[in-house]
Amino acid sequence: MTHQHASPVRDRLSRLARVASDEFADILSEPPRVIGVRLRLYLVDGSFLDVRYPTDDEYSFHWQVEDKLYRINNAPHHPGPTFPRHVHMGTEENIVPDEITSPSAGPEENLKLVMNWIRKQIGDKTGTIRRRQMREASESTDRLRESSKTPGWSGVAEIRKWRDRDQRSKS
Rounded to whole angstroms, how far apart are CA atoms 110 and 130? Predict the structure, then answer.
């Protein structure tokens, strides 16, 4: 890629990063990153999505989930009913028609279509992760309560004390 094309690509990827942050924060584990000519999105299930969009009409969405890959792209090398659009479903060799993106959609809309598809795929995992996080927070609070040397210690009471002290110091 020549230098003259780098700026429009980075601008496009920056717009896509904003869409991801604004509309998919619930499944992002970190802020989006533009790395060279791709956008990387880290997801709450430990997977990541690399988005390449060199022009408004060419794209590749590479979702890596442990040892499985899901690549949605429109490189014209696999014939099929949605040619040139296709999906590498789970492996490089398993090629299926692309029913996820739309040939008439622009970059932002196709990112939304892919991210909504991913959201559905990891939905159950996300709920499990959040339940585990809540359980761990609860267990941590219980351990604090048990290790406290003050009988009847309450995290709520401590927070209220700090809040009241801060309000008094401001007045």
Answer: 27
Q: State which amino acid sits at residue 162.
A: W
Residue 106 dihedral angles phi and psi, to the nearest 5°: -85, 180
Q: Are 111 and 14 in contact (CB under 8 A)?
A: no
**HSE of 121, CA atoms in CB hemisphere, 13 A:** 17
All residues at 6 or more sequence positions from 9 whose CB lies less than 8 Å from its CB, including other chains: 1, 37, 53, 54
Residue 1: what pLDDT? Answer: 44
Q: In angstroms, rounded to a whole number, what is the distance separating the alpha carbons of residues 151 and 126?
A: 37
pLDDT at 149: 67
* Residue 49, strand partner residues: 41, 63
User: Mean pLDDT of successive 10-residue segments in the chain (171 residues)?
Assistant: 66 97 95 96 96 94 96 89 91 94 96 97 70 73 70 71 77 70
Q: What is the pLDDT of residue 81?
A: 84
Residue 91 DSSP SS3: coil
C-alpha triplet 91, 9, 104: angle, nearest 5°: 65
| DSSP one-letter string for 73-111 | E--TTS-STTTT-EEEEESSS-EEE--SS-TT--HHHHH
The residue among 53, 39, 54, 38 whose CA lies nearest residue 1 is: 54
Nearest CA-CA partner of 45 in 112, 100, 131, 123: 123
